[in-house]
Design goal:
about 30% helix, 16 strands, Urease, subunit C, domain 1, alpha/beta
Length: about 450
């Protein structure tokens, strides 16, 4: 049963003694209805949810995990955090969780919120030539028009992500001579409008190359703004120099206390050289460990298993993460090897209905499902383990079946899904019924 925000408010919150509503929520019913229909939603200082299903352990037959144990609980949320987790109880007028499964909210860790057709008329991908450089030429032509409505479309795209259980994204945003800083500024307006229900990290992304076009001055300016990462794009094939481009990116990140997240589509020798050079630079600058990522990194999918394991070990030791889309054409990335070696692996939708791709659904849970299919994770434990790809590593149970989420004090970022356990949610791409972000009902 879907817990709509209207039913949520009508049936529980307004009648629940002790819940402190925002001043806006105390207005007349007609005004309240307007707010319920508004995308900003309402903020609550406190809420209690009964009949919430949480995972408590694995069920075994001999040595095989054959199921996931769950039970119903009552969750109290206050000031954006989980205040208490207790046995299920009939608190009067509390929110009825309907026995839905509570999971950590999802995170889309590679997306382009700043350039999309979503929220506008349908457009399929047009015929294109010249590879990435051909796409750069196309963008130089279409970006001025896209920018006119980019704030509105970004907001609509955020709403799509929220409906799929995602309340956080790492968005790459174009920084180049055509858009200058306008793409970033327009997206920041959208994010400000949605901040009560959505969190973000921003990557200053030189989509048209660092040196291929005169992007350096704009990157330097963007680095001083409210962003989190310095991006990059195929330093060999676009800029013609691995060392020059990576050295510039690393120094800009160090000078401005930012992380690094570089698009690397190159799949041949230059791709391997770029991976190794990034690892070397991170090892030389230890403050970048845990703050450096390679997006796509397709070169890993085109080498033999021994080389994959060697590079995975180096990535793990230097704490360089990999952000992947699943799948990408016919290429299957070695995600199980990366995870086994301890590399941080994140996933995202990348493009959603834009001039690069029209197949994005907005669901990262679908990406976990695809990963499980691609890599044969069909067992109860295998399916459950794929959830970490879409929660930035958080799962309700650890490898041994011990409950590790949620804990008292955790931020109240959660989804309620129509599933009996994580494994089922991944396998069936179970419907998201409600989304809560820092204690705020979002969807």
């Amino acid at each position: 049963m879907n817990i709509s925000r209207k039913d949520f408010l009508k049936n529980s919150v307004l009648g629940f003694a002790g819940i402190a509503l925002s001043p806006q929520a105390l207005m007349a019913d007609t005004n309240l209805k307007e707010q319920m229909d508004n995308t900003d939603k309402l903020n609550f200082n406190k809420m209690v949810i009964n009949n919430v299903r949480l995972e408590t352990g694995f069920d075994y037959s001999n040595d095989e995990i054959i199921g996931t144990k769950t039970d119903l609980f009552t969750i109290e949320i206050e000031e954006g955090k989980i205040k208490s987790i207790g046995p299920n109880s009939n608190v009067p007028n509390a929110i009825d969780g309907k026995g839905l499964l509570m999971l950590p909210s999802f995170k889309d860790m590679h997306i382009h919120l700043d350039k999309t057709y979503y929220g506008d008329k349908w457009q399929a991908v047009r015929r294109r030539t010249g590879g990435v450089k051909g796409m750069i030429k196309l963008e130089q032509e279409i970006m001025p028009e896209l920018l006119k409505t980019s704030t509105h479309k970004a907001e609509k795209l955020i709403e799509l992500l929220q409906s799929k259980g995602t309340n956080f994204a790492r968005s790459h945003v174009n920084i180049e001579p055509t858009s200058k800083l306008d793409s970033l500024k327009n997206l920041q307006v959208a994010l400000e409008n949605k901040k009560s229900g959505f969190g973000e990290e921003l990557v200053a992304f030189p989509q048209h190359g660092v040196f291929y076009t005169d992007t350096v001055p704009y990157l330097k300016e963007a680095a001083k703004m409210d962003i989190d990462f310095i991006g990059g794009l195929d330093p060999s094939s676009i800029d013609g120099a691995i060392e020059k481009t990576i050295d510039f990116t690393v120094q800009l990140a160090l000078d401005n206390n930012k992380g690094i997240d570089i698009h690397l589509h190159e799949s041949g020798e230059s791709g391997i050289k770029t991976i190794e050079y990034i690892i070397d630079k991170v090892n030389e600058n230890s403050t970048l460990k845990g703050k450096t990522y390679i997006s796509h990194c397709f070169a890993l999918g085109n080498i033999d298993k021994n080389k994959q394991e060697e590079l995975a070990e180096k990535l793990s030791n230097s704490k360089v993460g990999i952000v992947s889309t699943v799948p990408f054409g016919n290429l299957v990335m070695p995600i199980p090897i990366l995870m086994k070696k301890g590399v941080e692996v994140l996933v995202g939708n990348d493009s959603i209905i834009d001039h690069w791709n029209t197949f994005g659904s907005g669901s990262v849970l679908q990406k976990a499902n695809l990963a499980a299919q691609l890599y044969g994770f069909s067992s109860e434990k295998g399916l459950a383990s794929m959830l970490k790809l879409v929660t930035a590593g958080i799962t309700p149970l650890d490898e041994n079946g011990n409950q590790q989420w949620p804990k008292v004090g955790d931020e109240a970022n959660l989804v309620l899904v129509d599933a009996s356990c994580s494994a089922e949610a991944v396998s069936r791409i179970s419907p998201v019924e409600s989304l809560i972000f820092k204690g705020n009902l979002v969807y």
